[in-house]
Amino acid sequence: MKVFGLPRRGARGTRGTDRTAPTRLAARDLLAEAVSGLLQRPARSALTALGTVLGVGAFVAVLGLTATASSQIDARFDALSATEVTVEDVGGGRPGATGLSFPADADRRIGQLNGVRAAGVYWPVDLADDTVRAAPVGPRRTGEQVAVVAASAGAVAAAAPHFAQGRGFDQWHDSTARQVAVIGSGTAARLGITTLDTQPAVFIGGRPFAVIGIVDEVQRKADLLLSVTVPRGTAAKLWGEPGRERARMLIVTRLGAARQVAAEAPLALDATHPEHFRPLPPPDPRALRGGVSSDLDQLFLLLAGICLVIGTAGIANTTLVAVLERVGEIGLRRALGARRRHITAQFLAESASLGLLGGLVGTSLGVLTVLGVAVGRNWTPVIDPVTVAAAPAIGLATGLLAGAYPAWRATRIQPAEALRR
Fold this sequence. Notes:
Region (Disordered): 1-20
Main location: membrane
Protein name: ABC transporter permease
Order of helices and strands: HHEHEEEEHEHEHEEEHEHEHHHHH
Distance between the termini: 19 Å
Number of strands: 12
Helix content: 40-55%
Membrane topology: Multi-pass membrane protein
Strand content: 15-25%
Shape: elongated
Largest sheet: 12 strands, mixed
Transmembrane segments: 46-67, 299-324, 345-374, 386-408
Number of domains: 2
């Protein structure tokens, strides 16, 4: 125990008498007292620091995982959203008088633009009898209500489908109005079509269409998995041009070319009436990423803040209990010359040590969490060094805040009353 206020002989006062030296508490002694107080109750100290460990660990892990996920979000936006352009057929000032503004060779015209990888026209077919059957005869209830989509060969290619069986139709099927169809795996299961070896057909409004491909996955236009897709030329011949819903064009570009292609597409489709088309360029991936990152930050930082509040309450409670348990010790220190600021510094040092220890352990666990998730997902981990440096300081500040009230309570203990207990 540090002894305070021992008289120093030989000190000369104003009247030649001895004077008591002012008491001091060196930083080394203060640190030793704080460490000794923690080691006297190691289990309690560990459990007390647990809240800070969780809070700081969540803080580091959240910011690290958010930054890491943001880089992956960027990559996906670049691969999909940033390379997709949609062109709507608005029909100019008289949409009712123009059934289809896209020319027959729209795929070829857009395909000649620099940066275009695939492009095609599609629209939902408006049928009076939209029941699709796998047999030519039978009651209506044996059919399925399935969406029928008219699409050019380029539109099917732009969707980047994966065929479980068969293949997609091509320009020859489109130009010659062949009655062929590509169906999604979900539609095939509903109609009982499991293989193409038997050359199955579907009947749309009583008309047979040979199934030449079954799609089980697409990168774009996911609704094709639940639809029956027929060639554009076939749909126009059998059912006419688009009705209530107008046609659209899906364009897939190379990275960085989407906005330029969107600006050029209306003129490439119809130089005399570009107003018939409205291009929809992809959103800015930076703004979209910023919105996603902001939402993640706010949500998980709130959780980290709650953990820190719990940690603060735990440290404050434990420090206050320690003050009540050590009333005799505090009284003895005061009797030996310790001042109130020394008592305050002692308990603040103990609570700050708990917070700093929890901050260091929490920072380590947070970094390990980010690295583990990144390795498991085959991502590149992204951790801001400022976050790693600031996290232990947050733990230290938490400990200081938690120890303020118990330290103040300790200074209010009167030495005489404490020694009588």
